[in-house]
């Protein structure tokens, strides 16, 4: 996939303001201590990072999107960097903890070999006794939206394989994550999966349409630019019967995987 920055901090806040607010469980698993030095992978515009900053000694926070990093706040103990999590330098530092919230399903949309190398790199960046703590989209995450987008693309003449290949996410299962972590040398201490039905924002630029425009931008590039907005409308129409509740609002099935993995020595 082309290395294009599709992220917009304002659009992210409009469409997905719920994401950092729903990180309570994974932050509790992180269990930051005052002397911890933390690497935050896929920090976005730094909203969650800002809440972690007072809890530890220092943070290095990275994201591959220059536009998201440009929106990060200035924090006294935090360095924000534009960097790919797939090409981390082993000499940047060693960290007592490495953290990622709502980012690994983007980072790991790569080859199986690059996935394995990523976990090996994370292992080498941790101090002995350090932990890697993450929450990400799991197998089955937003399956209804994913299927609706593929259906609309194929209905508009996109070959099914091209539509599938345009997907920007990798939603791993517990078995896949455990295998990758253990192959890199980690001891897995916690592994859990949760179905978390989530209400989308009701802003005029949010909801299903805003979600698809922002998070599925790579998939929409299968279509000519003049077709994309109508395709987004079709996705919304397809999903009405499965996302609208009698009490109102649009709800989608987020499936989350969380883990704590430790480097023992």
List the helices and strands and how they pair.
Elements: H1 9-16, H2 18-21, H3 24-30, E1 37-41, H4 47-52, E2 58-63, H5 66-70, E3 78-82, E4 95-101, H6 104-107, H7 112-125, E5 126-137, H8 143-155, H9 160-165, H10 174-183, E6 187-199, H11 207-215, H12 217-220, H13 225-243, E7 251-262
Parallel strand pairs: 1-2, 1-4, 2-3, 4-5
Antiparallel strand pairs: 5-7, 6-7
Helix pairs in contact: 1-11, 8-13, 11-13
The number of E-state strands comes to 7
Point out poorly predicted stretches. none
Shape: globular
CATH classification, class level of the domain at 9-142 and 169-200 and 253-262: Alpha Beta
Output the CATH homologous superfamily of the domain at 9-142 and 169-200 and 253-262: Vaccinia Virus protein VP39
Strand order of the largest sheet: 3-2-1-4-5-7-6
Largest sheet: 7 strands, mixed
Instruction: Determine the structural class based on helices, strands and strand pairing.
Output: alpha/beta
Order of helices and strands: HHHEHEHEEHHEHHHEHHHE
What is the first-to-last residue Cα distance? 37 Å
Alpha carbon gyration radius: 19 Å
> How much of the polypeptide forms β-strand, as a percent range?
15-25%
Number of helices: 13
CATH topology of the domain at 9-142 and 169-200 and 253-262: Rossmann fold
Mean pLDDT: 94
